């Protein structure tokens, strides 16, 4: 019995190591290798359909986080956050706020071995392309989604309802529809402009009834030292109710960066006494929203 247990443990560890590598192989070779790993089929079924494997069940006690940040970014300000603005792209179909991510705060355990395939979000692809596109020339939208799942989605997977890629991305899209920042601001007369300046108090007053008092309006500083509207972070509890207060939780920017010269800066709370720009989207030259 001791020998069998050790072998099973070794096979489980091997499946977590092998699965991510199989993503890059041809379908034929993928299934050929999959057949040779006796525990992989059951583990893969658990991952695909959101049923926790025995490994995940043992980790449920580590699901100690209570708060999440749902972060939306404004494409017109995103390019100003890059070290190299020319890395930025805004697809022609993008005209509103897009999803940056849904991030558990202070998650203790994430399944880095959980694979992510195109088929996991195939039924959501059209919506994700519209509401969660990559805004970097160097990164495809699928690669962006994969990064967000591995670094943040798998951390949330210990909670029922988040326990598969499909379910995680479905929740993110529902939240995007619930928090339509563009419409909320537009209805209050706050619209993108190259000339008009806004104060953070104006934006917060509009958003507070809809996204709670614990939200954060973020800016970046462009090359002309102007404050530019960049992101809005909505604090949620793990059951997705608005607002969450937990000792030690702070609005730390958990953005996935790509390193100097490529990735976005972290942004900062818009200064209360310094007006900022809400730049329009320029699809042709997104890093020059006002020419």
Give a quick summary of the entry.
Helix content is 36%, strand content 13%. The longest helix has 21 residues.
Any idea what the shape is?
Answer: globular
Helical content (DSSP H or I, runs of 4+):
25-40%
Count of β-strands: 7
Low-confidence stretches: 1-48, 51-58, 249-264
- Give me the secondary-structure category: alpha+beta
* Strand arrangement in the largest pleated sheet: 2-1-5-4-6
Q: Could you tell me the strand content as a percent range? A: 5-15%
Cα end-to-end separation: 72 Å
Report the total helices. Answer: 10
What string, H for helix and E for strand, traces the elements in order?
Answer: HHHHEHEHHHHEHEEEE
How many strands, which pairing sense, and closed or not: the largest β-sheet? 5 strands, antiparallel
Mean pLDDT metric: 80
Rounded radius of gyration (Å)? 21 Å
For this entry, give a set of tags:
single chain, 36% helix, disordered N terminus, 5-stranded antiparallel sheet, alpha+beta, 10 helices
Q: Any chance you could write out the topology, listing elements then pairs?
A:
Elements: H1 2-22, H2 27-35, H3 40-49, H4 54-59, E1 67-73, H5 75-78, E2 98-104, H6 125-131, H7 141-156, H8 165-178, H9 181-187, E3 197-198, H10 200-211, E4 216-221, E5 227-237, E6 268-269, E7 276-277
Antiparallel strand pairs: 1-2, 1-5, 3-7, 4-5, 4-6
Overview of the molecule:
The protein is built from ten helices and seven strands. It is α+β, with helices and mostly antiparallel strands and 291 residues long. The protein has a five-stranded antiparallel sheet. The longest helix is centred in the N-terminal third of the chain and has 21 residues, at 2-22. Residues 1-48, 51-58 and 249-264 have low confidence and may be disordered.
